[in-house]
């Protein structure tokens, strides 16, 4: 996707503060963090949202969660816990249509969210 901002980060065309990479996944710090730790975990492959995912994306979707687990461990978040969020569509406030998992930690996270 030429114009997708997260595809540009995957291709190295715009800078990002990366914390993790493997063959399927890239993770970097959110530009506007809403928690002391706020990391975005994205697949290298462009998938617009959970709603756009198909069975062909099964391995990529699994890799997203496994990367989240690895990053949480690397960042020392397991003791106090963390939250994974995937905003999907309008009412959830999705603004970037390249699927991404928000990894939030470092403060008490209210539930339900506002
Ligand atoms: P959404 O609302 O789609 O779930 O989340 C998109 C997230 O991407 C937002 O938290 C926003 O701050 C972050 N974001 C948008 N553009 C960029 C960017 O160019 N670089 C980084 N690091 N984060 C971005
Ligand atoms: Zn993309």
Brief write-up:
The active site is at residue 100. By secondary structure, this protein is of the alpha+beta class.
Write the layout of secondary structure elements.
Layout: H1 5-11, E1 18-21, E2 25-29, E3 37-43, H2 58-74, E4 83-85, E5 101-105
Antiparallel strand pairs: 1-2, 2-3, 3-5, 4-5
The structure holds guanosine-5'-monophosphate (5GP) and zinc ion.
Count of all domains: 1
Strand sequence of the main sheet, in spatial order? 1-2-3-5-4
Uncertain segments? none
Write the H/E string, N to C.
HEEEHEE
The CATH superfamily is HIT-like
Q: Termini distance?
A: 32 Å
CATH architectural designation? 2-Layer Sandwich
InterPro entries: Histidine_triad_CS, Histidine_triad_HIT, HIT-like, HIT-like_sf
GO molecular function, one term: catalytic activity
Motif (Histidine triad motif): 98-102
Pfam family, one: HIT
